[in-house]
Write a structure and sequence with these properties.
The complex is a heterodimer. Chain A is α+β, with helices and mostly antiparallel strands. Chain A has helices spanning 33-43, 78-85, 96-99, 132-145, 217-220, and strands spanning 4-14, 25-26, 49-58, 64-72, 100-121, 162-165, 180-191, 199-208, 211-213. Chain B is an alpha+beta fold. Helices cover 45% and strands 13% of the residues of chain B. In chain B, a hairpin with a 2-residue loop joins strand 13 and strand 14. Classes of the chains: A alpha+beta, B alpha+beta.
């Protein structure tokens, strides 16, 4: 646990889709732990480590707006891809003109979060040359240089995130939010422990003075 | 958040003795007939149901009843339990020409489905229905003396239920238990419910929400997944499994939402553009919602209370009715809504929810969902009305302009079917406008642009539209106030007042005033019956690009002032206003904000020409 990092994530818009309203999308009130994990993984991820989110600080009032945008109704077919790999001649694309649909979305506006996270060893993948100090220093360097594997985003790819490292935990800006707010059950992450039956996990998000303490995975998984 | 709040409200409704709502596994439906059976399963009679509409005006040929939850019907054959149409229950249909077996197939499905569930219930009522289904032959239906008598009515449609010895079979306790066991026995996939957090049986299909404007009459779902792109982790065709919501919660939120949208609810939904707004407080006390409704529909309330017939018909708690009536009275007299009175006995800190829904054919989209303590909403709405305050043209104009009226002002007068067109024009703006009111944010820019657009294009026409009227001026004022409120300083502060500000020398404002003076000079000189006044002809360009129009107008003004009887007065006024421009040339164009200021200058100046009849009356009181 000595190897925790603190990052600040900001953006003009964000959309952390609620599972029940993912067709005409509606966002969760704040960033979900899995979205936060995704942002850190965009910066640095290796099979040997697993990122765990500890705390989420919300630095701005929660504000929503509505947009409409074009989405597609199809996914690339896995079956087709497999058949093409075996030599079949099938289309591997989605024609956006054919499957385009206009959808309404209720998205967050002007978000600003501080995320505290740490990584844990994945014993199965942990090699001889892996050291915790090593991974820690790599992620710090990458964050300081603004490097990432792919553009970190706030929920969906249309909404890029600006990620900065907070070196000193004491420097976390104070949240304007006060009091206790119950945000209801919120998506925690997906439980991949049984790859045939991937289950979503939910946790009760309680925000106190703008801070959400995220439970440990063991507490959420039942 | 949304589902959770709705589910909480469902639990509140369940505790409320005044409200009749369906338990999980049941839903309300319109039933037109009852088939009265003997205990041996003989069809004795067909009893048509009638009832009065909730406002007591119309006689209807159905009755609203709680029946076992009905399946969603698309094109396939899906039968319901104990309550269905004549095609299913009796195998009777007018559509037989197309498919000779149309009704027969449905009756078979109904017979099989109902027999299966009823056979688990050990009661005389259940046995009677089974016996009827066994004996009944749909092919000879038309020869059956009882059916023949009601054949035409039955073919018209409407649902049927069964009665045995005068009692509804759906009310039989053993039949109910059999249904509940059957219902829960199905779809027993258990997952963590995202509302309660418990591991529970998950609803595969979510309830239909009816009466959202623009949605299909059979109802639309708030939660549904119809395309591959929305399905996650191999939950193909899994529908509700893509977002685990327990059956208990799904039917609960459906009931709560349907209740609020139904005629049963004392508080109607508010329709704005394509957005249907429902609202509720976290308590059984309905006064919160009533107060909210009056806040947003002051005029509507007025009409409502005016009609003696409708008065008192609404199912508001009786002792509260008077209180609300008094508030409506004060609105009619143009007095301020008495916040204190309306909120008397209401706790400002009670949580209040406002949900804006819009339809997308068979699915609902959430336009906004706001939750604040009640007092916060009340304050913000009053703020909205305060911002809109501007001098009236006529004393009988409403002091409080409802949001709907403002939206209507932005629709072309050429549109005849107003409601439909309003809906289309305001697909997003209606919701955004409402949200701005309820959050205290600036109004949407699009609405402002649309308002100026109407001012630009409309001509004065007594019947249909007026270029610049009270509502448009009020909206422009409020828009500019709110736009700059958060920035601390408003560049047009001095124009954004109730009435004329003679000392404000912003060119846009002064030019607006000048235009009003010129218009008056013209009408004095030539009279009222002019085919096209300078307002019709020049207002748009004067407002957007003054430099191109004002020189012409001033030249014309010279002719008018010499012709008119008291031309000298106008001449002096024109001169005064020109002096205020400080010998600056006319600006070549005005920004959108400045155009608004121009309109306000024009409106204020014109209002200042006439003595305040309205105020005179009021002071005379």
């Amino acid at each position: 646990m000595g190897y925790g990092i603190t990052i600040r994530v900001q953006g003009r818009y964000a959309l952390f889709t609620r599972p029940e309203m993912k067709v005409e999308r509606v966002s969760h009130d704040v960033i979900t732990p899995s979205a936060a994990r995704g942002i850190i993984e965009a910066v640095y991820w290796k099979p040997a480590i697993r990122w765990v989110i500890d705390k989420i600080h919300v630095l701005r009032e929660i504000e929503f707006t509505n947009i409409r945008r074009n989405e597609v109704s199809d996914k690339v077919s896995v079956d087709n891809a497999l058949q093409v790999m075996k030599g079949a001649n099938k289309p591997l694309y989605i024609a956006t003109t054919e499957s385009r649909q206009q959808r309404a979305a209720m998205v967050l506006k002007d978000v600003d979060y501080v995320i505290e996270a740490h990584f844990e060893k994945v014993e199965k993948e942990w090699g001889e040359r892996d050291t915790e100090e090593g991974h820690y220093n790599i992620v710090l360097r990458r964050l300081r240089n603004g490097q990432h594997f792919h553009q970190p985003c706030l929920g969906t790819r249309e909404f890029p995130a600006k990620v900065t490292l907070i070196e000193d935990k004491g420097a976390i800006p104070k949240s304007p939010l006060t009091g206790k707010r119950d945000l209801g059950y919120m998506l925690y992450d997906l439980d991949f422990s049984n790859p045939r039956d991937i289950q979503p996990m939910f946790f009760r998000a309680i925000m106190e003075d703008g801070m959400i303490v995220v439970p440990k995975p063991e507490e959420v998984r039942r | 958040m949304i589902l959770q709040a709705l589910y909480n409200y469902y639990q509140i409704l369940r505790e409320d003795p005044d409200v009749e709502i369906a338990e999980p596994g049941y839903s309300a439906a319109n039933v037109s007939f009852a088939l009265n059976l003997s205990p041996e399963g003989e069809l004795l009679d067909v009893i048509p149901f009638t009832s009065k509409s909730p406002d007591g005006k119309k006689e209807r040929n159905f009755r609203r009843m709680i029946v076992p939850e009905q399946a969603k019907k698309a094109s396939g054959i899906v039968s319901n339990f104990l309550c269905d149409t004549a095609a299913y229950v009796l195998g009777l249909s007018g559509k037989e020409a197309k498919d000779p077996k149309y009704a027969e197939k449905r009756f078979d499905a109904f017979r099989q489905y109902n027999t299966e569930i009823l056979s688990k219930a050990d009661s005389p009522a259940a046995r009677a229905v089974i016996a009827f289904l066994k004996k009944y032959n749909p092919q000879k239906a038309k020869e059956h003396p009882v059916i023949a008598r009601h054949l035409e009515d039955l073919l018209e449609g409407g649902s049927l239920i069964f009665q045995v010895q005068g009692r509804n079979v759906t009310d039989d306790p053993k039949v109910k238990r059999a249904w509940e066991e059957y219902k829960l026995g199905q779809e027993a996939v258990e997952m963590q419910c995202l509302v309660t957090g418990e591991i529970e049986p998950i609803a595969r299909l979510h309830p239909s929400i009816k009466r959202v404007r623009g949605a299909q009459p059979t109802g639309a779902s708030l939660v549904s997944f119809n395309e591959r792109a929305y399905e996650s982790y191999n939950r193909m065709k899994g529908q509700g499994l893509n977002s685990p919501v327990s059956q208990r919660v799904a039917s609960g939120y459906g009931v709560a939402l349907n209740y609020m949208l139904s005629e049963q609810s004392p508080n109607r939904p508010i329709f704005l553009g394509d957005t249907t707004v429902v609202y509720w407080a976290d308590t059984a006390d309905k006064r919160y919602a009533s107060a909210f409704y009056i806040f947003l529909n002051p005029e509507f309330q007025q009409e409502e209370e005016d009609g003696e017939e409708t008065k008192g018909k609404r199912k508001r708690a009786k002792e509260k009715e008077k209180q609300m009536g008094e508030v409506a009275e004060s609105v009619r007299q143009g007095k301020a809504i008495d916040l204190a009175k309306l909120q008397e006995g209401l706790d400002d800190s009670t949580r209040f929810y406002v949900l804006g829904l819009a339809s997308n054919v068979s699915r609902l989209a959430v336009r906004f969902f706001l939750t604040e303590p009640f007092g916060v909403f009340a304050k913000r709405i009053m703020q909205h009305y305060d911002d809109l305050q501007i001098e009236k043209e006529y004393a009988n104009q409403p002091t409080y302009i409802s949001p709907y009226r403002i939206l209507v002002e932005c629709v072309s007068p050429k549109v005849t079917r107003r409601d439909d067109e309003v809906k289309q024009s305001w697909s997003l703006l209606g919701g955004a406008f409402m949200r701005a009111i309820l959050t205290g944010a600036p109004y949407p820019e699009g609405l402002y642009a649309a308002m100026l657009n109407r001012i630009r294009h409309d001509c004065d026409d007594e019947k249909r539209s007026v270029k610049i009227n009270y509502i448009r001026a009020a909206y422009i004022k409020a828009h500019l106030i709110r736009k700059y409120r958060r920035q601390g300083q408003n560049p047009y502060q001095e124009a954004l007042q109730m009435s004329l500000n003679e000392s404000y020398s912003h060119p846009a404002y002064v030019l607006g005033r000048l235009f009003a003076v010129l218009e008056k000079a013209q009408s004095k000189a030539i009279g009222q019956n002019i085919n096209a006044t300078i307002k019709d002809r020049y207002f748009t360009s004067a407002c957007a690009s003054p430099a191109s129009v004002f020189p012409t107008l001033l030249r014309l003004a010279h002719h008018w002032t010499t012709k008119a009887e008291y031309g000298g007065v106008s001449d002096r006024k024109i001169q005064d206003l020109l002096d205020m421009l400080d010998a600056k040339p006319f600006p070549s164009r005005l920004s959108l904000d400045e155009q608004g200021v121009f309109v306000l200058g024009y409106y204020h100046q014109r209002a200042a020409f006439y003595p305040k009849k309205g105020n005179g009356e009021e002071t005379a009181e």
